[in-house]
Amino acid sequence: MICWLTALLFDMFDNAGKFFKSPIKVISFVTVIIFNHLIRHNNFVIFPILIAICIYFTVKYYRSLKLRPIICVATAFVMIQIISGPVYNALGVQSGAGSLPISPLVQPFRIAQKYDIPISEDTEEFLEKILPIEEY
């Protein structure tokens, strides 16, 4: 995602007029902003920078672009709010709970514990060495 965004930004800075008049590039730009927010957890850093860049292009090229850069960011913001609000609620998506990172070796024990699946004592001893049971 970040590589795609970087390529789009290079293209935008290379020729802003051509970039914002191309529907494919504009849709691509809005899409990558939305996916960055949904996939990455540090979009709160990237999004304000993109807003500043779009304000810059709106001011600098107002005669040819009008409000297209601002409309792109606003569209992305509205879509993010719709997806992460009503759509997530309708699909039952819950925010991740802060918990211990689970290693692939310990994950089977957590599943066995959750669904009351019996495991052998050897396996339990092995998993107890990796991560004490109290920390699950």
Describe the structure.
With 136 residues, the protein is mainly α. It has eight helices and no strands. The chain has helices at residues 2-14, 16-21, 23-39, 43-60, 62-65, 68-91, 107-114, 121-130. The longest helix is centred in the middle third of the chain and has 24 residues, at 68-91. The protein starts with a helix and ends in a 6-residue tail after the last helix. The model has no long low-confidence stretch (mean pLDDT 84).
- Largest sheet geometry: none
Query: Are there runs of 5+ residues with pLDDT below 50, and where?
Result: none
Task: Determine the fraction of residues in helical runs and give it as a percent range.
Answer: over 70%
Structural class: mainly alpha
Average pLDDT works out at 84
How many distinct beta strands?
Answer: 0
Terminus-to-terminus distance: 33 Å
Rg over C-alpha atoms, rounded to the nearest angstrom: 23 Å
What is the H/E order? HHHHHHHH
Fraction in beta strands: under 5%
- Tally of DSSP helical segments: 8
Shape: elongated
Give the tags.
136 residues; 74% helix; 8 helices; elongated; mainly alpha
Write the layout of secondary structure elements.
Elements: H1 2-14, H2 16-21, H3 23-39, H4 43-60, H5 62-65, H6 68-91, H7 107-114, H8 121-130
Helix pairs in contact: 1-3, 3-6, 4-6
Would you summarize the structure shown here?
This protein is mainly alpha-helical and 136 residues long. It is 74% helix and 0% strand. It starts with a helix and ends in a 6-residue tail after the last helix.
